[in-house]
Amino acid sequence: MKSKKKLILIIVGVVVVVAIVIANLTMDTSNETKVQAEETKLKDITELVSASGRIQPRTKVDITSEINGEIIFLYAKEGDRVDDGQLLIVLDTVQLRSDVDQARYAVSEVKARLAGSKASLDKAQEDYDRLKRLHETNLTSETEFDNSHYAYLNAKASYEAFQAQAEQFRSRYEKQLDYLSKAKIVAPMSGIITYLDAEVGEIAAAQTAFTQGRTLMTISDLNIFEVEVEVDETEINKIELAQECSIEVDAFPDTAFAGEVTEIGNTAVLTAMGTENQSTNFNVKVIFADPNVKIRPGMSATVDITTSRRDEALTIPYSAVVMRTYDMDSLLAAREEVSDSGGGVQAAEADSLDQKSDHDDDEEREELKGVFVVREGIAQFISIETGIADKKSIEVTSGLSEGDSVIAGPYRVLRSIKDGEPVAIEEKSSKKEN
After folding, report:
1. Gyration radius of the chain over CA positions
2. Is there a contact between 315 and 349 (Cβ–Cβ < 8 Å)?
3. Which of 73, 139, 291, 425 is the most buried (most CB within 10 A)?
4. How far is Cα 259 from Cα 53, in angstroms, rounded to an integer?
5. Is the distance from CB of 419 to CB of 345 less than 8 angstroms?
6. Strand locations in 96-181 (E)
7. What distance in Å separates the CA atoms of residue 131 and residue 138, rounded to the nearest whole number?
8. What's the pTM?
């Protein structure tokens, strides 16, 4: 029995020793940081600004009534094609015709009064002219002459007052005629009725200085469509007129329509003001290059505006770009050392991004944009200048050469990696597993 226990203990001990040996053999004892790297390469790159919006006709007109009145005839329905000048709606004209008649009677009355006033003026002028001649030869008294003069002035003033009143009544009459003509609403342009909110028997409310009139219908030209999108203020400076666009309509998956920028807003559109979601955008209109009969107003669309292109540009993954802050004295010394030895620039320690020594100040530090390049198993920080970018890659205009191996991940490594740190590049298969 004792020999059995002893044998079991020996077997267990051997297994433990073998396990320890295997673990030591398979354990990675190196201090190298595992990184993912990509080579810089030449390729065509296109910078895009993406925005979403809704499709609308380039030309449309909202029809409202200019007078208050009951709709008694409706000659169109939604979807109808109408021509310029075609009769669409007729409003009740009973009251309007009564107002026109009253205005016309008032004009006739004031014309008669004006004619009577003119006759009185003519008589007063004749009397005045006759007494004036007699007064000049001392054949009439001063009193008679003065009375005729004042009678003439009074008749002239009365006549001028009737003239002004006649003009006023004539303007009122013309205004009533205009109101009567507006009881018939006609199409201001040719197109399709894309919206209708009117029924016979309803009251069409007029638009005034204090109220917004109700839109009775909308006429649209469906031959030319556009998309109105909102572009963020950080990207609006990249947008220019006539830039090419790719338009994707949600209703037509896997289909892209060509277009171009036709209008750029000058006034900012503020949304969610005073909240953490506040944004400042600018309206941009993009026109479809080719009409499509299946497109309808109000459809959702996404627009990719091509703002810049580069052929055979040196590119790196966007994720490879990092920012590092340096002490200027150390940086200058490192650069001098690099020029002599050909080594990498000595980057600041990770902690130095937020901390400074006692003798440092803001003027002595510089924040640089750069990447970490793998050279002989060592990560070296290289300052770079960049150009345009697409969704995945960014153009490098200085600092790198084609074929350089830059560290592109993982993100946690890029946050803490230091210049001069030993690294090991993971194989692509390992990347996929991770």
Report:
1. 44
2. no
3. 425
4. 14
5. yes
6. none
7. 10
8. 0.64
Closest to 409 measured CA to CA, from 41, 40, 38: 38
Which of residues 182, 197, 231 is at a domain's end?
182
Residue-wise pLDDT tens digits, 102-148: 999 999 999 999 999 999 999 999 989 988 888 888 888 888 888 99
Contact (CB, 8 A) for 424 and 384: no
At 283, which CATH number? 2.40.30.170
Largest CA distance in the chain: 175
**Quick one: pLDDT at residue 327?**
57
52 lies in some domain: no
- 331 with 338: CB under 8 angstroms? no
DSSP 8-state symbol, 345: B
In angstroms, the CA 263 to CA 56 distance is 14
Same domain for 298 and 346, yes or no, is no
Q: Distance of CA 402 to CAs 102, 314, 321, 405, Å?
A: 90, 7, 16, 9
8 A C-beta contact, residue 125 and residue 152: yes
**Is residue 329 located within the same domain as residue 418?**
yes
CA-CA distance, 420 to 350, in Å (whole number)?
A: 12
The reply to whether 261 and 346 lie within a common domain is no
Model pLDDT for residues 190-209, shown as the tens digit of each residue = 999 999 999 999 999 887 76
